Amino acid sequence: MKQDWEQIVSYFGAARLRSGSDELKAALGGIEDVAKSIRQSALREGLFGWTSMLDLCVQQTDVEAYSGPYLRVSPVASGMIEFRYLDTAIESRQWHRTEVPTQAVWRLEAFFDQLGWRPKST
């Protein structure tokens, strides 16, 4: 079920506060920063998101969740964050990167630029 960006930011903030692990807390903070970045940008009107357990899912089209390609942003037990674009069921063909939490927003922006989800800045 799609959620508005304010709800998503609140969800990850609460999950971060509930976390007992410092690594998971850091990763969830990075995902919260990603959600805040989208919420604060003009992209919030053209990107549709939802939460799935501790994952943030983002798609570019306003269709039923999981029914089209989407970006999944997930915490990893080591404290890293995995970005995975699910546009095929063949895992080895999916674009994916792992990033430290402090670079999560940068990775999101690089993904947007790479796939053309926003106009490139000049």
Structural features, described:
The chain has 122 residues and is of the alpha+beta class. It has one domain. Helix content is 36%, strand content 22%. The chain has three helices and five strands, in the order ααβββββα. A five-stranded antiparallel beta sheet has the order 1-2-3-4-5, with helices on one face. Strand 1 (48-52) and strand 2 (55-59) form a beta hairpin. Helix 1 (5-18) runs antiparallel to helix 2 (22-39).
Radius of gyration: 14 Å
Give the terminus-to-terminus CA distance.
36 Å
> Which sequence of SSEs, written as H and E, runs from N to C?
HHEEEEEH
SS content category: alpha+beta
Strand content: 15-25%
Number of strands: 5
Profile the largest sheet: 5 strands, antiparallel
Summed up, the domain count is: 1
Instruction: Indicate the overall shape.
Output: globular
The low-pLDDT segments are none
Give the helix tally.
Answer: 3
Instruction: Give the overall average pLDDT.
Output: 91
What percent of residues adopt helix (DSSP H or I)?
Answer: 25-40%
- Give the neighbour order of strands across the main sheet: 1-2-3-4-5
Key descriptive features of the protein:
3 helices; alpha+beta; 36% helix; 122 residues; globular
Topology:
Blueprint lengths: L4 H14 L3 H18 L8 E5 L2 E5 L10 E6 L5 E6 L8 E5 L4 H12 L7
Antiparallel strand pairs: 1-2, 2-3, 3-4, 4-5
In short:
The protein is 36% helix and 22% strand. With 122 residues, the chain is α+β, with helices and mostly antiparallel strands.
